Every structure is written in structure tokens, then in C-alpha cells.
Amino acid sequence: MIRIFLGLSGVGLVLGLVCWMGGALEWWGLPMFWMEVIFFGFAVTTILTFNLVRVKQKQPSSFIQFYLVSIILKMLVGLAFVFFLIWKSPAEIRGNVGLFLFIYIIFTGVEVYALTRKGNE
After folding, report:
1. pLDDT tens digits for range 43-90
2. What residues have CB less than 8 Å from 30, skipping those under 6 apart?
């Protein structure tokens, strides 16, 4: 479990540093809520991954159903977060939503890797 948390934290820190450095060096403009988007992706993925690992260890026969429910929950919570971003900053729709989609894909990939690793059985 601690390896999963460290992996997710590392990915979050790397993404945060890359975003910050790109904005500081003026390679690209940062959207208004860039830190919140990264933290949101980290928090949602961490919570779901820990719960799914627990379910996989205790109830392996029902893991697939819980995983599918977690995908739906993650999408619905993400959709609500995107609506919040659009509502709070309509001028920066492209930047905020684009960063959200990028972060969503990266953290989902890390989640899938963590769940399919051999040590989580």
C-alpha cells in the first residue's frame, strides 16, 4: 500500500513540477486552477486505488464489479469538478479542462498499473 501511495505522490509531484516549470519558463501559460486540478486527480485516484486494492485482497471475486463502479464514480466526480472549473473561470475553459483531461489520463494509467501489478494479490 505504501508503494502505491509513494508512486501516486511521485507522479503528482512530477506533474506539478513540470507544470510549474513550464509556466515559470514561459513555455506555456498555466490555467488558474492548475494546482487544484493536480491535487484533485491525486486525491481521487489515491482514495479509489486504496479501496480497490483492499477489495482485491479481501473479495477477489467481486473486484471487477467494484472496479467498474469506481470508474463510474471517478467519471461523475470528475464531471462535477469540470463543471465547477467552467463555472469559476469561464475564460480559461481550454486550459483548465485540457489539463484536467491530461491529469485524468495519467493518473488513470498509474491506477491501472498499481492494480495489475503482481504484488497486489
Report:
1. 999 999 999 999 998 998 999 999 999 999 999 999 999 999 999 999
2. 19, 20, 22, 23, 95
Q: How many angstroms separate the CA atoms of 57 and 63, rounded?
A: 9
pLDDT tens track for 4-34: 888 888 888 899 888 888 888 888 888 889 8
Name the amino acid, one letter, at 54. R
Contact (Cβ atoms closer than 8 angstroms) between residue 74 and residue 11: no
Q: Scanning the structure block, which residue is given the C-alpha cell 493518473?
A: 107
Alpha carbons 53 and 45: distance in angstroms, whole number? 12
